[in-house]
Every structure is written in structure tokens, then in C-alpha cells.
Write a structure and sequence with these properties.
With about 400 residues, this protein is α/β, with parallel strands linked by helices. It folds into 2 domains: about 250 residues, Alanine racemase (TIM Barrel), CATH 3.20.20; about 130 residues, Lyase, Ornithine Decarboxylase, Chain A, domain 1, CATH 2.40.37.10. Helices cover about 30% and strands about 25% of the residues. Strands 1, 11, 12, 13, 14, 15, 16 and 17 form an 8-stranded mixed β-sheet that branches. Helix 2 runs parallel beside helix 9 and helix 8 runs parallel beside helix 9. The longest helix has 20 residues.
Length: about 400
């Protein structure tokens, strides 16, 4: 992590800092890997990070938007996304959200149930608006990830069972204002093994063969997102392996003539560019453990408390002192010597819940009150999931181009 963005301002903590240069380089890497494939369309999954400056930067790069609420559609339209490049997913779309999407003329609905299709059909009839629908099929493909973020298995709430695929398409064909536009899939999140995506390709090919036998053509295939990032070593791998990801689909999918291929990437685009900055309130020396108590809590970054997610954590103040020792100052030398001694801490927040823990048994340089702590890889599902529990204010966000 570059020191200049942090030292250029005295940020009030807790807050998010977004590295816009890294975001641009990440977007450039995506464009490089999809160059020459005019039928490839990448949509940014807004649920990962809805910061307006981040959204505007991604829209300017030419990406579409993957939305899961009416509010996200509004955010996309405000920040430069074309309505025709918006796809609308979500297992529980409210009536007002469907109406709003129809009135704005979004690119397509990713429909997740027969019941949802019936509601969209009725609302399209009332508004006399055509609805472009793509059916989210549950492929019953497992994924090597946390159980709370797998979405493509039969027991998950998402999507239409693959055995009902032809039935729901035939139903849509009887609805005058419904246009069947394709199939949508998403098997999970934070996937690092390409064999998960290879398995999805195999299943999509099988389902396409079934459609061929029924004389059904799907203009669009949407493979969702899910590509993960390196939470352990964010500086070593700041940009995900987009080459391996896109090459997997280039090799594995048997697209039909004229089919358009859609991707919905979120975490892979924004996670590494975000850091949660927090300050040490107290270093508490307990009977069995030492605790670094910081001013950020799970109200600011809920992932560790929600499902045990790991984030690299740095004592930025200590690292700065150790990298710039003043050898002519004996007191400084003594301080640096103490700083260089690794100490094991639990890093915890101030929320009145035992689950408000960022890391346990973490080795850090000797840590003190007032030290600035950096919680890395927090650009995805951080600010956007923040809450005001305990009447705490929402964290502010800053970008490095401010």
C-alpha cells in the first residue's frame, strides 16, 4: 500500500480510502482481456460498492451495470450507465422496482421464478411496456467457497431449477409483451479455482444442447461473476487473474452463432482498491490475551463478523516508523527497537457484541494508542454494507484523486 495517499491528509477515522489509480488499472486489465471479443459484455455488480465516484469511474470505462434493487438502478442511472446496459437480478423484486425498471427501459430482467415472471408479465401489460427477460437457471453446480456465498446449488434460494428451464421459456413465449432474451447463471462468490467456472461451462453447454433439441435459441448467455481476489497478499496480487478467468470461458463455452456473452464482476473490480482506515483507541492487556481496540467496528466492515472473512491488517504508523528510523536520535532508536518486536493481538472494535472482531491472534509490531491501522482489500462489501447500529455514524469515504 502506497504511503502517500494516507499521509497526504489527516483522515477522520474510521473511513474508507479508495485507490482510484488501481481501479483504473484493474478496468484496463479487463478491457485488455476482452479486446477483440465484440460479443463480450462486462457488467459491474453494484452491490459490491455503490460509492458514486467509483460508479462513475467504472461507467466511464464502458462497463454496464448489474443491479439487484431499484435503488441500485437509480444509482446506476445517476452515475452514467445506460439503461440498455443494466441487468436486474434478485430473488425478491418488489412491484415498484419492476415498474421502475420497465419505465426506464433496462436491458433485461434476470428472472428467478415462474411467480416473478407472472408478475412482470402483468405489470408489463398494465404499462404497455415490453419486458426483456433472461431466466436465471440454478445449474446445481457446487463452488469452492464459503457456504454463505455459494448460490448455484439446488438447495440455494436463487434461480429456477434447470429441469424447469424449457417449461418457463415456453410460458414466456405465450406472453405478448415478454421477450425471452437468454439464460443467466451465477454459482457463487470469491471463487479462485477455475475448475468451478469450467464446471459451469460444461453445464451451460448441456443446457444449450437441450434448448437446441427444443428449437429454442437464447440470444444472450450470462455467466454471472464470482471471481475472487487475494485477501492474504493484496500487494502481491492487486489485480485478479482476469486472463485465466476469461480464457476459461473462451475455451469452455460452446456459444451459438450470434450469441452475446455477459459477465457480472463486482469484488474482482473494486475489492483491492479499498482500505478501511481506523485508529487504535486502547491496547488492553488481558489475563490471556492482548487486545487492540480500534474505532472501527462491524458497523463499518461486517464481513469478518458475518462469516469469518479474512482481511490483511497493517499497523501503518508502526511500519512507517520502522521504515524511516532516525539513527541519530537514541530515543527513536529505542522506540523502533520496541516497535520491531512482534506482538500477538486480537484486533477488535467498540461495538457491544462479542462478534465485533476483525482478527484473532494476529502478529503486529508493538501497537499503541493512536496508531493508524489499515484493514486491506475492503473495497467490496464494506462501505455498501455499513450500518448505524449503536447509533454510530456511517463511515466517510475518500478517493486518492481528491
Amino acid at each position: 500500500m502506497s504511503s502517500s495517499p494516507i499521509t497526504s491528509k489527516d483522515f477522520k477515522t474510521p473511513c474508507y480510502l479508495y485507490d482510484m489509480d488501481l481501479l483504473v488499472r484493474t478496468l484496463d486489465a479487463i478491457k485488455a482481456e476482452t479486446a477483440g471479443y465484440d460479443n463480450y459484455h462486462v457488467h459491474y455488480a453494484i452491490k459490491a460498492n455503490a460509492n458514486p465516484k467509483v460508479l462513475s469511474c467504472i461507467a466511464a470505462a464502458g462497463l454496464g451495470a448489474d443491479c439487484v434493487s431499484g435503488g441500485e438502478i437509480e444509482a446506476a442511472l445517476r452515475t452514467g450507465y445506460s439503461a440498455s446496459d443494466i441487468v436486474f437480478a434478485g430473488v425478491g423484486k418488489a412491484d415498484w422496482e419492476i415498474q421502475f425498471a420497465l419505465e426506464k427501459g433496462i436491458g433485461m430482467f434476470n428472472v428467478e421464478s415462474i411467480e416473478e415472471l407472472e408478475v412482470i408479465n402483468e405489470m408489463a401489460r398494465k404499462l404497455q411496456q415490453r419486458a426483456r427477460v433472461s431466466f436465471r437457471i440454478n445449474p446445481n453446480v457446487g463452488a469452492h467457497t464459503h457456504e454463505h456465498i455459494t448460490t448455484g446449488k439446488a438447495e440455494n434460494k436463487f434461480g429456477i431449477d434447470k429441469e424447469d428451464m424449457t417449461k418457463v421459456i415456453r410460458m414466456a413465449e405465450t406472453m405478448p409483451l415478454i421477450d425471452f432474451t437468454g439464460l443467466h447463471f451465477h454459482i457463487g462468490s470469491q471463487l479462485l479455482q477455475m475448475d468451478d467456472f469450467e464446471a459451469l461451462c460444461i453445464r451451460i453447454n448441456e443446457l444449450q444442447d437441450e434448448l437446441d433439441s427444443e428449437g429454442i435459441y437464447a440470444p444472450n448467455i450470462n455467466v454471472g461473476g464470482g471471481l475472487g481476489i487475494d485477501y492474504e497478499q493484496p500487494d502481491k496480487h492487486p489485480i485478479p487473474n482476469f486472463k485465466a478467468y476469461f480464457d476459461t470461458f473462451k475455451r469452455g463455452l460452446q456459444l451459438r452463432q450470434g450469441q452475446q456473452l455477459h459477465f457480472e464482476l463486482g469484488r474482482a473490480i473494486v475489492a483491492q482498491m479499498g482500505t478501511l482506515l481506523t485508529r487504535v483507541l486502547y491496547v488492553k492487556h488481558g489475563k490471556q490475551k492482548q487486545f487492540v481496540i480500534v474505532d472501527a467496528g462491524f458497523t463499518d466492515l461486517i464481513r469478518p463478523a458475518l462469516y469469518g472473512a479474512h482481511h490483511a491488517i497493517q499497523n501503518y504508523t508502526a511500519e512507517k516508523e520502522l521504515s524511516n528510523p532516525n539513527s541519530s536520535d537514541s530515543s527513536c532508536s529505542e522506540i523502533c527497537s520496541k516497535r520491531a518486536t512482534a506482538v500477538t493481538y486480537d484486533v477488535v472494535g467498540p461495538i457491544c457484541e462479542s462478534s465485533d472482531v476483525f482478527a484473532k491472534d494476529l502478529s503486529l509490531p508493538e501497537t499503541r494508542r493512536g496508531d493508524l491501522i489499515a484493514i486491506r482489500s475492503a473495497g467490496a462489501y464494506g462501505e455498501t454494507m455499513a450500518s448505524q447500529y449503536n447509533c454510530r455514524p456511517l463511515p466517510q469515504a475518500h478517493t486518492t484523486d481528491e
